[in-house]
Amino acid sequence: MITRRSLLTTTGVLAGGIAAATLVGCSSEPNIPRPTVSPTGSITDQLDQVLKIIANGSTNFGVYIEDVRSGGTYSFSGDYSSQSASMAKPMIVAMAERKARSDGGTLSAENVDNATKAITHSDNDAASALWEYAGYQGYQTLADELGMAHTHLDQNKADQWSWTWTTPSDQVLLVKTLATGGSQALTDAECSFIYDLMGQVEDDQTWGVGQPKSGPVKVHLKNGWVQFKSTDGLWAVNSMGAVSGDGRDYRMCVMTRVPDFDTGRAVTSEVGKWVFSILGSGTL
What we know:
Blueprint: H1 4-7, E1 20-22, E2 33-35, H2 43-55, E3 61-67, E4 73-76, E5 82-83, H3 89-102, H4 109-120, H5 124-134, H6 137-146, E6 165-166, H7 168-180, H8 188-198, E7 218-227, E8 235-245, E9 248-258, H9 261-279
Antiparallel strand pairs: 1-2, 3-4, 3-9, 5-6, 7-8, 8-9
């Protein structure tokens, strides 16, 4: 189990009783700000203190959390908008399910295999096959029907799933729909199929929201990462999903835009660790 003690090191303390450290001297560990003193106050205050340090002033950073235990929510630039990258793949599978249903059936064996590869292994070819099968126009229709108001196709690259735009708050809404069903856009069986696959993501892709996964802690997630060479050259590195067990039950998304993948993975995982720790001491 991840505890606050295991997250802390010793370094200088900033105003407000929480510290930041920048890791140096380890070539395998990205140089990112990390909280090093346990935060204080309400759960919201603690999250504010920690995420302010991790964000380090960046405007390309957003987190949104829903605490299933209380129904409370928390936003740290939760409407930050950026490209989805592979975080779009649960939506792509949902599009394919809807297409099959509109044709009077269910996913073919081939497309079940594509869906499994797209989510559990983040296979791009499998996702692209489903995207082509469903038709990219179905993405916007699905987002609208799900109430994901800030999720949309890219104006200039509408036919490319990696360029679709979304926000942390919209992704948490999607996770909730997949976990609970009851949507007019998707049947309960369609939601369960995707959500179950998100619980089978291979271990080396369970960073970010999935960082606390161990022992009794279960994680359903999908991460996304891609470099946008044709624009700013930065990486969109994102993580969305649900964490339950060891007294916690929450849904979360963190989205970043950073110089390289390793930095993005480290930042999203740092968020995942601290949110797990803080929500272990109370509800939102």
